[in-house]
Write a structure and sequence with these properties.
single chain; alpha/beta; Rossmann fold; 7-stranded parallel sheet; two-stranded parallel ribbon; globular; binds NADP nicotinamide-adenine-dinucleotide phosphate
Length: 241
């Protein structure tokens, strides 16, 4: 089993949905630690602006925008090919992109259900499938999945979202068992946060009642990644007190 570690300054990360909310906080933390981070999602303008802002703050070119739709397998493969060509490694994959379609048990439409499943579950599976061979070849990698409190408990207003986030945890556990059996130096972490305030996200802002400040997600990510290579903090449940 490989225990090789690597400084963040030599790491290349992909953060899906890294232009907004939790993904942006993760990106800031990784880039501040010295990693190069490709932020990937559908809205090119949002990504470009976020990357420019973060690079200006860092006074370095470490955040790179990439337009892609996680529901499209061809676009996933193109993303992974382009990122690997740029850096010859993909060291961290943060599966953060996700959405909810609020339809109750009685309201669920085929379209709503499929949108949620294709984004939150099938997309992650396809992206992991594309990244894994590169991580295996380099014998190094961390895969971080953003599930939810709704991946552990059911809520009547978002049944399809709950199903996708429960499913994501099931897939991630199977993936963890797979990398353990193959003996590669790859760790799989899952975040299961309660409400995270992505509107009051500046350092000096106070989160709304019942929400946690998004900075806690970023700090926990960096803590989890800093552990020894043979240590996996499995499911990380963060709730407001
Ligand atoms: N905030 C919370 O309270 C909370 C709690 C538990 C879990 N979560 C999870 O945390 C993750 C981030 O959410 P957030 O709160 O930071 O909200 P957010 O700002 O809405 O982030 C969601 C991101 O997903 C991206 N995305 C959506 N559809 C996509 C697609 N088809 N292809 C690629 N990217 C796509 C969006 O970018 P584009 O629109 O540009 O594609 C956006 O950047 C989600 O998985 C969410 O379920 C959030």
């Amino acid at each position: 089993m490989g225990f090789m570690s690597k400084p963040f300054s030599e790491q290349m990360a992909i953060v899906t949905g890294g232009g907004t909310g939790i993904g942006r906080a993760f990106t800031e933390a990784l880039a501040t630690a010295g990693a190069k981070v490709v932020i990937a999602s559908r809205r090119a303008d949002v990504l470009r602006r976020a990357a420019d802002e973060m690079n200006t703050t860092l006074a370095a070119e470490r955040v790179f925008p990439y337009e892609f739709d996680i529901r499209d397998r061809a676009q996933i493969e193109e993303l992974v090919r382009d990122v690997f060509e740029r850096g010859q490694s993909i060291d961290v994959l943060v599966n953060n992109s996700g959405l909810a379609v609020p339809e109750t048990v009685e309201q669920i439409t085929g379209e709503g259900w499929d949108t949620v499943m294709e984004t939150n579950l099938r997309g992650v599976m396809q992206l992991v499938r594309a990244v894994l061979p590169h991580m295996c070849r380099n014998d190094f990698g961390d895969i971080v999945n953003v599930s939810s409190q709704a991946g552990k408990h059911g809520y009547a207003d978002v049944p399809s979202y709950c199903a996708s986030k429960f499913g994501l945890l099931g897939y991630a556990e199977a993936l963890r068992d797979h990398v353990r059996k193959t003996g590669t130096n790859i760790r799989v972490f899952n975040f299961c946060p309660g409400l995270v305030d992505v509107e009051n996200s500046k350092a000096d802002q106070t989160p709304r009642e019942g929400f946690i400040h998004v900075a806690n997600m970023a700090r926990t990510l960096m803590y989890a990644l800093s552990l020894d290579r043979n240590v996996v903090l499995e499911d990380i449940n963060l709730y407001a007190r």
